[in-house]
Amino acid sequence: MFSHNGKISVRQVEILLILQMFNTSILLLPRIAANHAGRNGYMLPIAALAFGFIYLFCITTLTNRFKGDTIVEFLPKIVAKPIAYLVLALFVVKIIITTGLEIRMFGEMVSQVMLPKTPIEVIILTMLLTTAYLVKSGIEATARMGEILLYFIFLPLVIVFALIVVKADYKQLLPLFETDLMSIGKGAFVISLSFMPIEFMLILAGLMKKQEKTRQAVLIALLAIAVIETIVVILTYVGIGANESKRQIWPVLTLMQSVQFPGSLIENQEILMMTSWVFSIYMYISSGIYFSSLMVSRALKVRRENIFILPVIPIIYFVSIFPESLIDAYKYYMSFQYSFGIWFLVPIPIVFILIAKIRKVGNING
Amino acid sequence: MTKQQDKNKISVEGIYHDKENKINMELSTSLDTNIKNVEILFKDCMDLVKREVDIGKEVPFRVYGAYFDGMVNREILENFFLSRVIDYKNLNGDIFENSKTPTQIIMDHFSATFDIKEVETMDDMIKAILSGDTGLFVDNSKKGLVIATRGWPNRGVGEPSSENVVRGSRDGFTEIVRFNSVLIRRRIRDTKLKTKMVSFGTRSRTDVAVMYMEDIAKPELVEDVMRRLNKYEIDAIFDSGYIEQLIEDSWKSPFPQTQATERPDKVASSLLEGKIAIVVDNSPFVLIVPTTLNAFYQASEDYYQRWQIMSFTRILRYLVSFLSFALPGLYIATLNFQPGMLPTPFAISIAASREGITFPTVLEILIMELTFELFREAGIRIPGAIGHVIGLVGGIVIGQAAVEARIISPMIIIIVAFTAISTFAIPDYSLTSAFRLVRFFFILSAAFFGLYGFLLAMLFVLAHLSSLESFKVPYLAPYNASDRNRFRDLKDTILRFPTFMQVTRPIFARENQRTRLRLKESRANEDMEPGAEKMKGNYTSNRRDK
């Protein structure tokens, strides 16, 4: 029987992670890749996997020591409570800011493609409220939603990609290997920041049914997203060219515009392709809202875990309307990712692993 | 003398009936007391037939029988009971001299029917009489007898009106709980098919049969169903719809969380999947729990016809069910907000057809949708012969005339008509009703925010469906949580895989009872595919190497 224990399966975690990583950054990816490695940018997601594995290792080593616990439960076991709660508060703030900037970028995109006359505040707020409706039902419903949205997100993409594959100009990828290792390394690191949602594993791991499979879940999600990213970059280059990718804010959107559907059933199909992104951003934002409110309610030991969902929404909303314009939002988003993206992926887990080892807390064999 | 002790006082509530409207009284050894009580309880019930007879010849042996006129099968009563009483009356009374109790004597010597049983309380007696059985009070006995003589007018087993099939059985459920359980039992001749009887409704005392396969259904599910059934005290249950709404998981959802069907074959196959059937007296609709969204797209016929055509039909059903709630919304979104999406010639032709129409598209769609809903409602209420006329009048007058009068554009007529037909392609009526309601939500959100609003509405509905459960089974299974049964349940979803591939039962069944189809043990080495022997061109050497 399906029990209501607020636990989700390995497959659900994989899907949640894939959908969270498949967010706005994918739309920017070809541009970032082109900036760092020119026409060899498609190598970067694969190279970024090396960084991904480090993140995976750091985070799962920490969570595996504390089976059944989320970060809210295991941090106070490692360090003194005030420090633990301070770190937790920082984590919540980070998630809220990332989610806020993410939804701002999303709002800008929707505004540009679909609703040029509607105030962006309305777009953002309606999205936030729709998300709140899902996450109030808890992690199980969210995970199931992820499973369903997987069909809605990737099926249209596969169709469009198939059309691009047929008509693409593969000479765009040549010559191969003309980039130096240094810029590949640097680019790979920047791309690897798109794996940032792995940090949600600090919470998700504690909500998994089979916690011994945390590593496997993250690994599969990482490999899947790296492959998807590579395909997206390659197709953008062969579709619109690496140089054009550099100039566009949303190169993938430009790519979508370049596609011609057979029989011209629909024109301006990039609007239709927005469907995929609206759905995947929805999952990212739902995770942002859910995890931040879950952490607050667990830290305060409130019995109803969804009670902080509505209070979190105005905060995220204010973060999202803080940037003046799209350019601002983009700037904030990128610099926030560069400066703070890595913190909860590598340094903080490592510090806590070391402290846990010295203090011998948690499952030592983990 | 206190009020409670005064048995002769007539006050139905309080003295005779407890809070649950059960008669709180033991049977008395004195026949006269029993008669008096029955007379009081059935005061002014002129349809009750009652009579006292002395069936002994030498020893006085009085009995008092009561039944409701018209509710009993008089043939059973007269041929198998009363005629024998009269026969015995003229015999010598050796039978009275052994150690048997008076009721046992009657059961052994006067009854030629199997179905006669002793009851101990007045409540059981009265309930039996009210259900169409005959009650027999016997002098000097603490027990009474109930002879099963139920037989009342009924319409018989007819064709299910809401779930017709071209191929498949034509018997449908009827209003009598016993007939319905027979229709199911005729399809599953297994002792493990269990039927639990409960009575629901303090006044109606409606019989409710809970049927399940003992070794396939999960015990916790059976327990859960029984627990939910026992939760409420209601005065009357007139249809399974009452129970459906009292046992469902989420009352806020427009989506049905139990499946109601008129088809015994559907119930039988569901029972073999580990689901539970709730058969309610006076209702030709049997409830099946738990249910999933996918189950509503499965018609009985899908399994009786070839898999290719039925897979095609399934795809069609899913597609049109999407269109049935989405099309008007999509039309508004594209036309009002994203006209660039339409191919230019098409957009121009739509614009031309809208020339001279004053209403905005949203209003046009809303007017037409509501008009159609009106036709549907009126069509049900209007007597048969006139009903067809209404369809004609509606189609021609509202359709043609409204377009010519430039009230609405022809595109709207096409869309509303297509949507309406789409709803009828979904095999389940209650799901259709949910989609009808959801459609308006899509229309309004598309009217406000265009395609973005449409997508939000879509997310909202999907989120709702993801959080919905029916008896702890996710509503969208097997599209989610499919790994629970190693993705096997996906073989019977949008595509209906060939029958020989449907080897497992879905997640509803117990884990050790998941195999539905396998090769016979003696031929376990052969190919699962039917006709595999022939393909190899040799019937004898068809064994695979181990």
Quick recap of the structure?
The complex is a heterodimer of chains A (366) and B (546). By secondary structure, chain A is mostly helical.
Name its key features.
heterodimer, A: 366 residues, Amino acid/polyamine transporter I, 0% strand, globular, B: 546 residues, alpha+beta, 4 domains, five-stranded antiparallel sheet, 17 helices, 12 strands, disordered N terminus, disordered C terminus
Topology readout:
The complex is a heterodimer of chains A (366) and B (546).
Chain A: H1 10-21, H2 24-37, H3 43-65, H4 71-78, H5 81-113, H6 120-135, H7 139-167, H8 181-192, H9 201-204, H10 214-240, H11 242-247, H12 251-258, H13 270-299, H14 309-321, H15 326-340, H16 347-359
Chain B: H1 12-16, H2 31-41, E1 48-54, E2 62-68, H3 74-89, H4 102-109, E3 116-119, H5 122-130, E4 134-138, E5 144-147, H6 177-185, E6 193-200, E7 206-213, H7 219-229, H8 240-247, E8 259-261, H9 264-272, E9 276-280, E10 286-289, H10 293-296, H11 307-337, H12 344-353, H13 361-381, H14 384-404, H15 410-424, H16 429-467, E11 469-470, E12 473-474, H17 532-535
Antiparallel strand pairs in B: 1-2, 2-4, 3-5, 4-5, 6-7, 7-9, 8-10, 9-10, 11-12
Helix pairs in contact in B: 6-9, 11-15, 11-16, 13-14, 13-15
